[in-house]
Design goal:
The protein is mostly helical and 323 residues long. The protein is built from 9 helices and 4 strands. The chain is 81% helix and 4% strand. The longest helix has 44 residues.
């Protein structure tokens, strides 16, 4: 733990991390207090919402599918944000405005923040590839895709990214080199996502022109095929909305980082703008569970039933305790 009463803006090394030392300007104090209050609220909603999603996706048989396994992996990322990253962010900000810099807290926060940022985009890329395969090659998708295969893919993704994120913290590569790797990985993910959805758009357009509405289709098999395609398209549209929200939430924060690297250090840019735009990144973890429930009637029905059952049990327990 390092304490400073410096009246000038400077930097302090913490295992390769750059800690900003600042004078207690009003803009800094307001930012620290404001983002701490909002992050405290969002930490609860992210933890509760994603914890509930993980529970229903992992335990309810009706929701167990390869594509939902990928959604569950993304929920794990958002759950870690709410449970670990946001509380550590609040602790850092509270001590920071008192001129106290907790290196171990910053170190743990930075590791999980980097881990979750990359994992979010990697998970969304896997989900996009799944949607592309399901829409563009439906018969191969049904024959080849299994939960076991997706479990291996998710495990490899988490293990490899966790190890890569650890490298700058054990001195294998510099923080600047890792930031470059993270930035290039984000660009690669966005490019892959756009390619997947470009392919989906082409196929969806062709199907709209070729396939008749369900009421006009003759056999039961044809009707089931059309309905199944409609369900897959619904899932694909949901993922498209999820990706759009993710990119919109990250774009301002990434822009601040790029501006700082180009224009140089500025307190307003490096602290005030960075933390307020970072709040939008954290908020994304709370948005996703709402999106799943709004867009998927199956998930919404199971979640509503589970909440009803839990609150009903709680009411019964409270009632029996009182009597």
């Amino acid at each position: 733990m390092d304490k400073t009463n410096s009246s000038e803006v400077g930097r302090l090394a913490c295992f390769g991390l750059k800690t900003i030392l600042f004078e207690s300007k009003s803009s800094v104090v307001i930012t620290a207090i404001g983002v701490s209050i909002f992050n405290t609220i969002l930490a609860f909603t992210a933890t509760f919402g994603n914890g509930l999603m993980i529970f229903v996706l992992a335990t309810k048989r009706s929701l167990k599918s390869p594509s939902n396994l990928l959604i569950c992996s993304l929920c794990v990322t958002d759950f870690i944000v709410g449970l670990i990253v946001q509380p550590l962010h609040v602790v850092s900000r509270v001590y920071e405005i008192r001129g106290i810099h907790l290196c171990k807290v910053k170190l743990t926060y930075a590791y999980f923040a980097f881990l979750c940022s990359g994992a979010s985009f990697l998970n969304v890329t896997l989900i996009s590839m799944d949607r592309c395969y399901a829409v563009c090659r439906p018969f191969l998708y049904e024959a080849n895709v299994t939960t076991k295969k997706y479990s291996v893919a998710v495990a490899v993704m988490w293990a490899s990214w966790s190890a890569l994120t650890l490298l700058p913290f054990v001195g294998v590569i510099s923080t600047n080199s890792y930031n470059l790797v993270l930035f290039l990985a984000l660009i690669a993910c966005i490019v892959a996502i756009f390619i997947c959805y470009g392919c989906i758009y082409v196929v969806a357009k062709r199907l709209r022109n070729a396939v008749a509405p369900p009421a006009c289709v003759g056999s039961d098999k044809e009707r089931k095929t059309v309905v199944k395609r409609a369900n897959e398209q619904q899932k694909t549209n949901t993922v498209a909305i999820l990706i759009t929200i993710l990119i919109l939430c990250y774009a301002p924060n990434v822009t601040c980082g790029l501006l700082e690297s180009v224009l140089g250090f500025s307190l307003d840019l490096a602290y005030v703008a960075w933390h307020w735009t970072g709040l939008l990144v954290f908020a994304n973890s709370s948005f996703n569970p709402l999106l799943y429930c709004i867009r998927s009637s199956d998930i919404r029905r199971v979640v509503y039933r589970e909440i009803n059952r839990r609150t009903g049990l709680l009411s019964q327990n409270v009632g029996s305790t009182v009597t």
